[in-house]
Amino acid sequence: MHPGLEHYLVLSALIFCFGVYGLLTRRNLVAMLLCVELVLNAAALNFVAFHRFLFRGDPAGAVFPILIIAVAAAEAAVALAIVIALFRHRRNLDARAADTLHG
Amino acid sequence: MTIETFAFWMIAVYTLGAAYFVVTARNLFRCAVGLAATLIGIAGLYLLMDAQFLSAVQIAVYVGGVVVLVVFAILMVADVTQKEFLRSPLSRCLIASVVAELLLLIVCGAMLSQGFGTARPPQAAAQVGEIGRALLNTGPGGFVLPFEVISLVLVAALVGAITVAGKPGDDFEERGED
What we know:
In chain A, helix 2 runs antiparallel to helix 3. Chain A is elongated, with a radius of gyration of 17 Å. Chain A has a single domain (5-90), classed as Helix Hairpins. Chain A is mostly helical. Chain A has helices at residues 5-25, 29-53, 60-90. By secondary structure, chain B is mainly α. Chain B has 2 domains: 1-85, NADH-ubiquinone/plastoquinone oxidoreductase chain 6, subunit NuoJ (Four Helix Bundle (Hemerythrin (Met), subunit A)), CATH 1.20.120; 126-166. Chain B has helices at residues 3-24, 28-48, 52-77, 90-112, 128-135, 144-165, 172-177. At the A-B interface, helix 1, helix 2 and helix 3 of A face helix 1, helix 2, helix 3, helix 4 and helix 5 of B.
């Protein structure tokens, strides 16, 4: 069957749900960050699919994935900085142990 | 079966397998390698959809930048020789899988019942020059404001990351007192 818009949408929904499942089950902060990256990529894939199959003349579908990638890079930098700072304090990366705001 | 169809199914299966590996692997380092594999698969899907520039950006920024950053962080904070890290109880995994499947059903149902219609008359997909002009276009339909905002966000995020992760005895206030 020739891949159409629906194929890409279902594929990105599957990747999105893998990411959500990982976010809910993982307890390690770095692993949770990797699952967030999956979710962001599923969103970007949707943008490109709509651009390819419905709105070819409109560059918006190609611009937004670039913005998503930039946001993901910024998010990864900040999240990993927090992870490193947290690791200095607590010596582990368990999301459940990190439930207080004061050091 | 054309070569494009074959490539789509191969890449789709490969990407889903790699994504599944990311959420289930027990070793953090393997998770990061799985993420790199997933991102390369998605870059392949971009190529299939005529988005060569996005595919190159995905490889250069994501696989070459973000994943390398994550691997550095893993090597700094985690003991990669340990076989397992903390896992959630089985009940939580079951609830999470039910939630994820319900979400999948809702999203797929909403998108497939929509009927997006057939493709518009064929035009070339946006190429690099067009994307660049759209990013710097100040008129209607231009993206110069998001472009500037994202630059600010990136600068703020990098300065914030350095401030948060810097060594406690090495912050800017103490340096100012010298």
